[in-house]
Inverse folding.
């Protein structure tokens, strides 16, 4: 019986355990360098676009394993338009941000229309979008680099050396505000877990054992506190992390707590049954790609802010990073299964692998090989699990 409980715990928390093991491996191989405060901060700043795009990609995958291959090109195109507006046309940065969001959302709606209402396969539609918007990016930038000089925009979207939340307590060498935010996050997480368990008990739902819940809560709380301590030891909370947190919380709530979120899972689980039950499946497909376009625009702004420039090559392979994070984080290749929290763990795992191998000096080509093998292993695990449960 105890063995069964252990196996159940491992199955439910496979990716968390994998993240801990991989991090431990790189701590050993790098002599602890991967956990230096600056590297932990860089892990967030450099992978912020993955967290954002993977959250949007999850919505597409939930509808039946569909993906958006145009994401990286849209990131580049939106960034190119925004940089050109701010630097070459002297458009106010706030107006430029609004226009970039409108453009990204419009692109998502354009692709969503063909996919949802004309039923052009998502692969073909977004492949066309990948080529179209990559080409338009070159047209807008005329093949050149546009440097960003707007300090407010750069700071707002996580670029530059001062893109951190200041410490309101003014402690030198340690950002106390960051640490208090981490402690508060742990308290909120524990309250949510306890309230959720009480609610399930009242309604008679199946629950994991109390020991498993406590073990998971201790591991996650310890990770949050350790992460907060490392950030506080450097410069504090990056503004990119604030944006990522808002996106994750909003979309996590939508997918887990709203009727609309349940519709995404229903469509991915069985589209015909969902349609017969009264769900507007076309609308769900459409909204998935509208969301993807919106988040691609946000990622585009964060990309040009971090790089303090716009180039025709930005965004290459971003869609593959987002897709990989989703599947590694537990999203099913068949649709209908996946959580935002899992996607974030998947993105963190990829980020740790990238950072760890970079510190070790592993050749970039071998890094791609490792990432490919990790992605393949995650999908194989999903396929085998489906067969066992069938």
């Amino acid at each position: 019986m105890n063995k069964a409980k252990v196996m159940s715990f491992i199955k439910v928390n496979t990716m968390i355990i994998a993240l801990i093991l991989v991090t431990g491996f790189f701590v050993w191989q790098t002599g602890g360098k991967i956990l230096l405060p600056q590297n932990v901060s860089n892990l967030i700043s450099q992978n912020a676009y993955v967290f954002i795009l993977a959250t949007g990609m999850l919505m597409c995958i939930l509808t039946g394993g569909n993906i958006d291959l145009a994401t990286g090109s849209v990131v580049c195109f939106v960034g190119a338009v925004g940089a050109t507006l701010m630097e070459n046309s002297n458009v106010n940065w706030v107006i430029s941000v609004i226009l970039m969001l409108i453009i990204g959302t419009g692109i998502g709606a354009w692709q969503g229309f063909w996919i949802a209402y004309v039923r052009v396969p998502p692969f073909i539609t977004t492949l066309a979008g990948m080529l179209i918007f990559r080409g338009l990016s070159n047209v807008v930038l005329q093949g050149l680099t546009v440097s960003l000089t707007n300090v407010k925009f750069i700071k707002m979207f996580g670029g530059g050396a001062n893109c951190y939340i200041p410490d309101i307590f003014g402690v030198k060498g340690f950002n106390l505000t960051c640490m208090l935010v981490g402690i508060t996050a742990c308290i909120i997480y524990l309250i949510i877990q306890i309230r959720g368990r009480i609610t399930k008990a009242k309604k008679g739902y199946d629950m994991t054992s109390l020991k498993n819940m406590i073990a998971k809560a201790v591991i996650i709380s310890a990770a949050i506190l350790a992460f907060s301590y490392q950030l506080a030891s450097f410069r504090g909370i990056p503004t990119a992390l604030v944006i990522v947190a808002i996106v994750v919380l909003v979309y996590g709530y939508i997918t887990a707590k709203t009727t609309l979120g349940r519709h995404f899972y229903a469509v991915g689980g069985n589209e015909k049954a969902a349609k017969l039950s009264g769900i507007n499946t076309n609308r769900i497909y459409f909204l998935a790609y509208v969301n993807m376009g919106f988040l691609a625009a946000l990622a585009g702004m964060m990309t040009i802010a971090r790089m303090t420039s716009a180039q025709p090559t930005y965004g290459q392979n971003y869609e593959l990073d987002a897709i990989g994070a989703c599947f590694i984080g537990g999203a099913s290749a068949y649709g209908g299964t996946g959580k935002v929290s899992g996607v974030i763990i998947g993105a963190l795992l990829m980020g740790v692998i990238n950072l760890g191998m970079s510190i070790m000096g592993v050749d970039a080509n071998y890094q791609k090989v490792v990432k490919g093998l990790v992605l393949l292993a995650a999908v194989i695990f999903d396929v085998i699990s489906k067969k066992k449960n069938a």
